[in-house]
Amino acid sequence: MGTPCHFALFELQPSFNLDLDQLATRYRELARGVHPDRFADASEREQRLALEQSASLNEAYQTLKNPPKRARYLLAMGGRELPLEVTVHDPEFLLQQMELREELEDLSDMDGVAAFKRRLKLAQDELNQSFAACWDDAAQRDQAERLMRRMQFLDKLTYEVRQLEERLDD
Amino acid sequence: MAYSEKVIDHYENPRNVGKMDAEDPDVGTGMVGAPACGDVMRLQIKVNEQGIIEDAKFKTYGCGSAIASSSLATEWMKGKTLDEAETIKNTQLAEELALPPVKIHCSVLAEDAIKAAVRDYKQKKGLI
Fold this sequence. Notes:
The complex is a heterodimer of chains A (170) and B (128). Chain A is mostly helical and 170 residues long.
């Protein structure tokens, strides 16, 4: 294909543990270099190329800065298909998710939300650590996929918490 | 995106929302999730001595289509045998609710929940 992988764009080795501040700094530097404004006087071909580079840079950044997206990308690099829409059977974890959603529904003040967010953050940190420890071990592939799917659920929960915060803020 | 009238009806008046005792030997529980959209679905059935599903309950955290798909699934399962319930297809749910292509996976999730609930019940009874 000839397209450099998301990590290579940032001159990084594929890894789950990333310094996000460093990634953001490098993204801004690289984005400046391909910003359309710089190519206002360039040929049409150069303009198109810059636009394409800018788009792939942006896509790479959005993927790498988000843990579940980064995890999914790392697992897909091995060449195995990872469907986006899939049904998971992970009963204990799903039961927990359901209970967390129920708790979230009953929250009505910012203090409660803050406490909920701290727990969620802890759960995410724990998941991230477990994933970092096993994603590149072929023998633990199933476990790594399960952890990546769990991250996706917690990501959605984070989104729901943000929505609730906005509602409470109004 | 506009929801069909049937989806809105099930969303606003979901049938059979609730919870059964998962430890009850006559209850089968199906827990499934769709990680990409974060949907979580629990579907439960209570089966009588004749092997007929006499009650079904669900609880779904997800979009309107996921809620409507599971609500409709519980309606259709009641009064059916386990084997009949297992033949309910996602395409039938999607057609009844007029789900758009991007929401088909919601009906797939509901079909998977039906199968998981039936399997849980059969496992409890030592049927599989």
